[in-house]
Predict the 3D structure of the following.
Amino acid sequence: MRTLILTAVGLVLAVALLRLAPAPYRTWAASLFTLAWLGFSAWNLRTGLAHGYTFAEELPIHLVLFGIPAAAAWGLWWWARRAATALP
């Protein structure tokens, strides 16, 4: 359940950050989000390891925890960039 909640929080943060960022700064916003979310995911991984889980147990969970919001941020960036260039 914790993984689902944290993934949802990451998705909400990614969407909010990219919607609030002005168009010229969306690449920067997606990069900043990805780095910040990687840091948060690493901290969460370290916490799981400190509570006795092995790296092999934690890694798939944290690939999902990091990968889905990061992919969503870059997917939104790509979609917004494509939509902006499609307009006449």
